[in-house]
Design a protein that fits this description.
alpha+beta; RNase_H-like_EbsB-rel; 152 residues; 3 strands; 2 domains; 15% strand
Length: 152
């Protein structure tokens, strides 16, 4: 969205006036100003690693979340069916994997469990990764670990 032409002294209060922009745009502008102000303060106090693009993304995500809070919630239908583990076809094995990520440490584990067509445990593995990028990477590593264990 384009920022309208604003007076250099009163621009912040001008954004709050009716007729200049709608409520959604006004919210995005205000949240964006807050994010940039926080980024400025962080840089001023020695924290230089955050990008302006990250502040802009945070602003848009926050504005959309706040805007959606005003919308009526759809009723959630209760499920009567309980999900269960199902055994694989005869002669097959099922491989379940999971990964976890600890962002404060930048590391995490993967876990693998193999079960036969009777549902009996046939093998498993847990592995710690001291270097991880994010949760998605650890999930992918867990899938790879599962494929390797199933192959072996």
């Amino acid at each position: 969205m384009k920022l309208p032409s604003l007076h250099p002294i009163s621009w912040a209060s001008d954004l709050l006036m009716d007729g200049l922009c709608n409520d959604k745009e006004r919210g995005i502008f205000i949240i964006g100003m807050y994010a940039l102000w926080m980024l400025r303060n962080q840089r001023r106090h020695g924290d230089n690693h955050k990008l302006v693009s990250a502040a802009v993304r945070w602003s848009l995500d926050t504005a959309i979340d706040l805007w959606n809070l005003n919308k009526p919630m759809n009723s959630v239908k209760e499920r009567n069916n309980v999900q269960q583990w199902h055994a694989p076809p005869a002669g097959w094995f099922k491989c379940n994997t999971d990964g976890a990520f600890y962002p404060d440490q930048g590391q995490g584990p993967s876990g693998v469990a193999l079960r036969n067509d009777s549902g009996l445990f046939a093998g498993g593995q847990a592995r710690w990764y001291p270097q991880g990028l994010d949760a998605l990477t650890l999930e992918a590593l867990a899938c790879r670990d599962g494929a390797v264990l199933a192959r072996d």
